[in-house]
Amino acid sequence: MASILTAVGAGAAVRDRLVEMARNAAEPNWLLAGASGTRTELTALIEFERTATRILEVAPMLIPGLLQTSDYARTIMSGLPAHELDTWVTMRVGRRDVLTRRNPAQFDAIIAEHVLYQQIGGPSVMADQLRHIAKMAELPNVFIQIVPSSTQTWHLALEGAFILFEFPKASPIVNLEHFRSSVFLYDDGDIYDYAQAGDSLRQAAMSPADSLKLIARSAELMEEQSDGTPD
């Protein structure tokens, strides 16, 4: 993880600022303006992932970053300059060590069902991605739930993606990523609302066991489509 922080230019001053931000709830919420995925934003995410004891990610559009394969990540990052792409993909994949290290963070992912059927990178890439999610779900600290498309009522995932970080001593933080900005919230009222949203979505989503069955069926569907794709 230290090598990733170095790669994104996380100097001592930047890291100290991030840690202080996480611990000082008296400050206003923090807006990072500029293209999504900038060095400062990524440094913040890495630091919060590294120090969190529990991470909840609500993903209505894409596979959560901590669960992405390199091929899936490479596809969604294909707009980056070619000379930077490998570095950013490596950093994305390297971040998942927070889930596999000793004393890992608990990771709860709530994913919209339609995300499973998007053929990002093609059916073969997507099949591998879905198999990878199922493999990660075997970890005792990783819990995957799918919000079914058949749900006929409005639910909070329709409001957009968010990540809720919980820490052993510091106050929780919520991250909202947008096209040209990223917002970090740590006002008590905001945190409460997003925590409640997470609880509501857990109730609306399928159980982890049923979610994994659906993921497996989706992977089989992608594999069938991949086998039928002409060379």
Q: Could you please describe the fold and organization of this structure?
A:
InterPro entries: DUF5753. Pfam families: DUF5753. This is DUF5753 domain-containing protein. Residues 43-217 form the DUF5753 domain. By secondary structure, this protein is an alpha/beta fold. It has a single domain (2-227), classed as Endonuclease, Chain A, CATH 3.30.870. 46% of the residues lie in helices and 16% in strands. The chain is built from nine helices and seven strands. It has helices at residues 2-7, 12-23, 39-51, 70-76, 82-94, 97-100, 123-136, 188-204, 208-227; strands at residues 30-33, 54-59, 106-112, 142-147, 162-166, 173-177, 181-185. The chain has a seven-stranded mixed β-sheet, sandwiched between helices. A hairpin with a 3-residue loop joins strand 6 (173-177) and strand 7 (181-185). Helix 7 (123-136) runs antiparallel to helix 9 (208-227). The longest helix has 20 residues, at 208-227. The chain is globular, with a radius of gyration of 18 Å. Residues 1-9 and 33-37 have low confidence and may be disordered.
Oligomer: single chain
Q: What level of helicity do the residues show? A: 40-55%
Q: By CATH's scheme, which homologous superfamily applies?
A: Endonuclease Chain A
Mean pLDDT: 84
Distance between the termini: 39 Å
Main sheet specs: 7 strands, mixed
Q: Order of helices and strands, N to C?
A: HHEHEHHHEHEEEEHH
Count of alpha and pi helical runs: 9
Can you tell me the overall shape? globular
What radius of gyration results from the CA coordinates? 18 Å
Number of domains: 1
